Amino acid sequence: MAYSELIATEIITRVSNGETLRAICRSHDEFPDESTVRQWYSENVKGFAPRYARAREAQAEAWSDEIIEVADAELKEGANRDEVNRARLRVDTRKWLMAKLHPRSYGEKIEQQITGKGGEPLVISWKATP
Asked: Residue 93 domain-assigned?
């Protein structure tokens, strides 16, 4: 399918609002396959790549809002274990994707500290070989 600015803009808007590319491309017969959109991105057809990259960042923000909504939603009285597990799965899936796609913003912060024996400052020594 040939690039269409109208369709590209619709895809970018919907990705920014949290929809997946797969769902968007399947939603309408006039939309291209996912592979076509990914090609537009990889080849930066008519400046599509930076716009799509920003949309993916906005998508993570939309997912963070969705996580709050899912977590704060009150389950019906007498909710069963399946409903609770489904909500947990929705939250965990979005958190995992956000951390993988945008580790600087949503990944876990890991700090390492290296010390010497007994917590003392690390001493580095070496022997010169003749």
From this structure: yes
Residue 21 in domain: yes
Task: Express each pLDDT in 66-113 by its tens digit.
Answer: 888 887 776 666 677 888 888 888 888 888 888 887 788 888 877 777
- Give the range of the structural domain holding residue 42, as residue numbers without chain letter: 5-104
If we measure between CA atoms, which residue out of 30, 15, 5, 93 comes closest to residue 61? 15
- For residue 12, give the amino acid letter: I
How many other C-beta atoms can be found within 10 angstroms of the C-beta atom of residue 110?
A: 5
Name the phi and psi angles at 53, rounded to 5: -60, -45
Could you tell me which residues come within 8 angstroms of residue 101 by beta carbon, excluding any fewer than 6 positions away?
56, 60
Contact 55, 12 (CB under 8 A): yes
Residue 36: band (very low, low, confident or very high) from pLDDT cuts 50, 70, 90: very high
- Region of residue 70 (phi > 0: left; psi between -120 and 50: alpha; otherwise: beta): alpha
Give the CATH number of the domain where residue 30 resides: 1.10.10.60
Residues 6+ apart with CB under 8 A from 2: none
